[in-house]
Design a protein that fits this description.
By secondary structure, the protein is mostly helical. The protein has one domain. The protein has 18 helices and no strands. α12 runs parallel beside α18. The longest helix is centred in the N-terminal third of the chain and has 45 residues. It starts with a helix and ends with a helix.
Length: 470
Amino acid sequence: MAVSLPNMRRVFDRFAVAGLSRNALFGVGQAVIVTVCLFLAYRLVIQHAGLERFGVWSLLLAGASIARVGDVSGAGALARFVAASPTEDAEHRADLVHTVMLTSLALNAMLGLALLFAAPFALPLFIPAAHLADAERLVPYVIASLVLGGLAVAATAGLDGAQRADQRAAVVVFASIAFVVACAVLIPSLGVLGFGIAQLVQQATLLIIGFAVLRRHIPGLTWLPRRWRRDLFAKTTGYALRLNGISLLGLMFEPIAKFAFNYAGGPALVALYEFASRLVVQMRGLVVAAFTPLVPAFAALPDAADVRFRQILERAMRATCVAALGTAVAALVGAPLMSLFVLGRLSPELLLMNAALTAGWAINVLSLPLYFAAQGQGMLRWNFMGHALISVSVLVGAFVLVSPFGSVGLVGSIVFGILASTCAGLLGNATMFGLSGIVLRLRWWLLNTVLAIAALCGAAGVTLAVVPGS
């Protein structure tokens, strides 16, 4: 997409002066509130539906996420294209949004029909017979979530591209509150089905309000997208195909991990893994939300040789050292509180899984600035490699380590893959951009952060191992 250098600089300067800190602050606030809402919903569904039924819903979502690989509409990458478009060319920006949303609707509708057809044959392969009836009832809601979710992602990504991640955060927070309210109303009478319907309420709220706010920043957007352009489809889909290569590897991580936990201990163990993983991922999400505005900021710059690119990257890397340590502390402290709040008891198995996963995901925070730099510049080679390493580790854990070592072998394999991915993303992207000097200059920051996180997580694991009854 051709954008003149002066235009990109104007976009960047405005963003850097007025927007980056604001967007990061709102992103953190969004992540905090979303985390609270999520665990309130978890508590409701566990109280009224039970651990195993929630595990069935989690397995179905994991299966549906495999179908998301077929969504090459570019909805998730819309922020990059909107940010790189001249702000004065409102018609071009509107056409981008229209093209992506229409493509997303068509592709996800076809994927949903394929899932509906395949469900009777696929469900008995991984859902226990005792829960098969529940799973069959939930399938239509999973499919609706697939379609609505793609459109909602496009609306919120467009706000990021318009340099208004603060408004995106406000929309996400409002939708999360609507989700909790819907859970409180629906789950007591409908059980896990109410949880599924509440997620649809959340996604519909994201889509409607997010699109309404986006129309304020991109004149020419009509309520019903009607302009589809082949040239824009080719650009967004070409980039989405590369992103979906990464997504395909990601699918080998979360769904296969859940299927492996199901094999090792049934839906209840899947639910425990979901809680243990979700807590640290949500804590890490605070950092991801704060730094996501870097993607359009880097996209608005010509290349890594720009001095502003290097300055932003170095500041971000220093900040992530502090953020990574904070992620570890928050996840470790929050795990027992979450266990008591959601399950009504301390679960040693959940806490041990959380300690191990915290070590991996907290250290992974260190690679985020370079990961987002690569995404903003459209150079995804090492991001792809990082996800490949995680996926390979999950496959090894699922097919080699589960039988002899159970869930411990699988968790260990996952953590190893996350750490290998961190090294690839950090060092590979730095070398690709010619920024190894920045990593070398910050080596003591990085090393001390890694050692501190390892010590905290190791101490948490040892404490659990020696506590009577654990």
